[in-house]
Structure formats: C-alpha cells, structure tokens
From TrEMBL:
It comes from Actinomadura mexicana. InterPro entries: ATP-grasp, ATP_grasp_subdomain_1, PreATP-grasp_dom_sf, PRibGlycinamid_synth_ATP-grasp, PRibGlycinamide_synth, PRibGlycinamide_synth_C-dom, PRibGlycinamide_synth_C_sf, PRibGlycinamide_synth_CS. Belongs to the GARS family. Pfam families: GARS_A (PF01071), GARS_C (PF02843), GARS_N (PF02844). PROSITE patterns: ATP_GRASP, GARS. Residues 107-303 form the ATP-grasp domain. It catalyses: 5-phospho-beta-D-ribosylamine + glycine + ATP = N(1)-(5-phospho-beta-D-ribosyl)glycinamide + ADP + phosphate + H(+). Its EC number is 6.3.4.13. This is Phosphoribosylamine--glycine ligase.
Length: 416
C-alpha cells in the first residue's frame, strides 16, 4: 500500500513511524512532513490545506490511502476533495469535522445523541455571557466557538477574566465546570462502526502542577493504570457509537478518528470536547503501543468495512512522551534556535525523539520552528521505566530557553 500523511507535527511523525513499521506499506510520503519524517518517508513541500494541490499529489503518487493529521486540513475540505477524486482518505469530510470546528455544533450533536457532557449555553453578547456565568458559578469555563488549537478555552475562578475572554471572541460557549481527571480516548471509525484505541492522558497546561496557560498538550502517557475497568466499553456505548450513529443519520458519516476528550467526574463520565483527528501528543504514545499493523486498519476506515469486533493488539508495557517547547511557548514561541543532543537522546535505551516543530537551518542542522519543538518518547515495561527513559532522553536535548514539564505521568507512577 502506498500512503500519504498530511501535516508536519509530532503527531504526523508518530503516524509516519507507525505506518513505516507496517510491512504492507510499500511507499510512504508526507506533505509537508518535517525533518523527522524525512528520515523514513519522502517529504513533499505543499500547503496541506490546498485541496487541489493535495489531490494532484495523491493522484501522482498513486496512493491507496491519505491520512489527515491536522484539523485545519479537515476544515479546509481536503477529505471531501480526496473522496470526490476516488482516493481513500482517513479523516472526515468538512461537515463531520464540525464536531471539532464548532463547539456549538458538537453540543447540538451530543444533545441529539444523548451523549453526557457539561451543561452549556451558546452566547453572542456580554449580557448573555454574564447571565450564563452567574447561572453556572465558578470555576468559570468559557470557550471560543471556533478552532483555536486547544488555546481558545479559559477555565478560571475570576469572573473578570472569563468576561474578558468572552469579549475577545465572536461567539462563545459558557459551560458548567467538570471536576475529575481527564482521559483522551480515540476511536477509529468507518462511518458506521468504531474501534477504540488505548486511553491516554494529556497534560494541557504549560507548567508543572497544571499551572499556567492551556497549550496544545505538554506530554502524555498510556496506559492508564487508574482508569476504572469497563471505562472504554462504557465510552464506546454511551459516547462514541451514539455520536457516529447521529452523524450517519445526518448524512455526514464520520470517517477517521473520533477523539473523545473526557472528564471522569464525581457524577460519571462527561465529554469535555470532541476532536476530529488524532490528539497531539497522545497519538505519540498510543501508536507506540499498537502492535496491529496500522495502515490496513486506517484503510478499512477509509473504504468502509471496519470490523467492529476487531480486537487490536497492544504491546505490553507503557509509553510516556515529554514535549520540549520553545522559549516563550505558548504565547510567543522563539524560532530559529539550534537543537543539540538528538543523537544522544535517541541512544537512551527505550527512548526516541519525534520532531514536532523543527526545520533544518543553515548547514542542515535542526532548529526550532514551532512552539512544541520535540516529543521525547520513553518506553518500558511499566510507566515508571517509560517515564525514566523519557526524562533521561529529554535531559540530553539542548535548546536555548526551552522548557518542558517535569511531572508527566508522575501521579500515575506514584499511585499505589
Ligand atoms: P477543550 O478545548 O474544550 O478541550 O478545553 C481545553 C481544556 O480546558 C480541557 O482539556 C480541560 O482541561 C479544560 N476544560 C474544558 N472544558 C472544561 C469544563 N467544562 N470543565 C473543566 N475544565 C474544562
Ligand atoms: N492533545 C490535545 C489535542 O490534540 O487537542
């Protein structure tokens, strides 16, 4: 099978790595990819949101599968264009991707499908916002209705801060605060059937102890030793399948990965958000553990005929990823600084490094080129070993002003 991956981040490097491991993949291409994917695939410089350019490239490369990474590519309608051209595509059409692109749409689908989520109100004026804030009380949760790369959400005790965020957006969703730990569960969908991957946990805040601003994600781990038994089955039957059924009923079938961001609250499982693509950086750890060849699986979603009773195979042990972020991330990441220690990091047993926001600078040396620069992945027989490998490898990386969280998977490791 010839495969094209769209996107340029750590998630796409992880996807390329997993596809590269699948013996059925005879040619692997990325567009645009990054210096990490260049080591295992052919990179093609193009704007992945350009429908015409993507269809042309996929046709020229005669690929049997296109895998879409970023939400912006889905929202640009690249999935629609590929399917129209008869090219199998893993990633929903623009209409179904609204499950991520519009918080208000996601809420409407959840209400119709009876999916448990936070009570919420869509607000378009400051008067409406003030009313909603007072109805739900603190902590206040205010979400920009549009796409904001995980950064459009403010959770705060301060009513003023909540109001200021709402004022800066056109339309917001104000909602009830959900307590309890968060879990990311990805389900592969073919429009009708869905198969779950391993649940993972992401660390959204910039600094240790869940302090600082929300980011795209500063680290992740899987599996979750503390997750209640039966969690995945429960989420599949109360969240994922009803959502897939509802989108099918609306004639916008969901093909791709449905990412359920969940809170395990004192009152039960609630959906915090849906995303229409693989989570970043959770994918880096989840795909690390997947033993079932991934290309055939994603292609089955793209062309239909995913076997819902399929039991995926997982490697024993655990994976932890630590995001090395550029100076100033998330507000104003510094670009262009040289990265050192990549080989030393990769030489740490059980560890490897995925490129997330890198480019090749002068003399072909890697430099920071985005907020989240590298994803250092550690693996091992258990979370403690995986965590130790990840942090040892991260300590080898040199990047002026960079920062990373030191507490990824720490609580899970410390649990009895
Ligand atoms: P979202 O973009 O909707 O995933 O929100 C980003 C992050 O904000 C989530 O991962 C949560 O940590 C937090 N968050 C979002 N909605 C809520 C909520 N209703 N209650 C508590 N925290 C929330
Ligand atoms: N890790 C969170 C996200 O991908 O949105």
């Amino acid at each position: 099978m010839r495969v094209l991956v769209l996107g340029s981040g750590g998630r796409e490097h992880a996807l390329a790595r997993a596809l590269h491991r699948d013996p059925s993949v005879t040619a692997l291409h990325c567009a645009p990819g990054n210096p990490g994917t260049a080591e295992i695939a052919d990179n093609h410089q193009l704007d992945p949101t350009n429908r015409t350019a993507v269809v042309e490239l996929a046709a020229r490369l005669r690929v049997g599968l296109v895998v879409i990474g970023p939400e912006a590519v889905l929202v640009a309608g690249v999935g629609d264009a590929l399917r129209k051209a008869g090219i199998p595509c893993f990633g929903p059409d623009r209409a179904a991707a609204r499950i991520e692109a519009s918080k208000a749409f996601a809420k409407e689908v959840m209400a119709a499908a009876g999916v448990p989520t936070a009570d919420s109100r869509v607000c378009e004026s400051s008067g409406q916002v003030e009313e909603a804030l007072d109805a739900f009380g603190p902590p206040y949760v205010v979400k920009d209705d549009g796409l904001a790369a995980g950064k459009g959400v403010v959770v705060t005790e301060s009513r003023d801060e909540a109001l200021r965020h709402a004022d800066a957006c056109d339309r917001v969703v104000v909602e009830e605060y959900l307590d309890g730990p968060e879990v990311s569960l990805f389900a592969l969908c073919d429009g009708q059937h869905a198969v779950p991957l391993l649940p993972a946990q992401d660390f959204k805040r910039a600094y240790d102890g869940d302090e600082g601003p929300n980011t795209g994600g500063m680290g992740a781990y899987t599996p979750l030793p503390w997750a209640p038994p039966g969690l995945v089955d429960e989420v599949m039957s109360t969240v994922v399948q009803p959502t897939v059924d509802e989108l099918r009923r609306r004639e916008t079938p969901y093909v791709g990965v449905l990412y359920a961001g969940l809170a395990l609250t004192s009152r039960g499982v609630r959906v915090v958000e849906f995303n229409a693509r693989f989570g970043d950086p959770e994918t880096q750890v989840v795909l690390d553990r997947l033993a079932t060849p991934v290309a055939t699986l994603l292609q089955a979603c793209a062309i239909g005929g995913l076997d819902p009773s399929l039991q995926l195979e997982w490697l024993p042990g655990a994976a932890v990823t630590v995001v090395v972020a550029a100076e100033g991330y998330p507000a104003a990441p510094a670009k262009g600084d040289e990265i050192t220690g990549l080989e030393e990091a990769a030489a740490v047993e059980g560890a490897y490094v995925l490129h997330a926001g890198t480019a090749l600078g002068g003399e072909g040396r890697p430099v920071a080129n985005g907020g989240r620069v590298l994803n250092v992945v550690g693996t091992g027989p258990g979370l403690a070993a995986a965590r130790a490998a990840a942090y040892e490898a991260a300590s080898k990386i040199g990047l002026r002003g960079s920062h990373h969280r030191t507490d990824i998977a720490l609580k899970a490791v410390s649990m009895p």
